[in-house]
Design a protein that fits this description.
The protein has two helices and no strands. The chain is an all-alpha fold. The chain has a domain of 27 residues.
Length: 61
């Protein structure tokens, strides 16, 4: 439950335990988030196909 006050961690290990495990429960990682954020900046060529919006699936059906 959030009280509106930012959480202060005493160590990076505590941050990893508390925050990065939340990412695991969302089925994402820090690398995925960074890649998604900067993917548009790294696309240099134009494609004939329209770009798909949203996050790509890790395990396509």
């Amino acid at each position: 439950m959030s009280s509106g006050i930012p959480r202060i961690y005493t160590s990076f290990a505590e941050f990893e335990r508390e925050e990065l495990r939340r990412l695991d429960s969302l089925r994402t990682s820090v690398d995925d988030m960074v890649e998604e954020r900067f993917a548009d900046d790294l696309e240099f060529g134009q494609s004939d196909q329209p770009r798909r919006r949203g996050r790509p699936r890790k395990h396509p059906r």
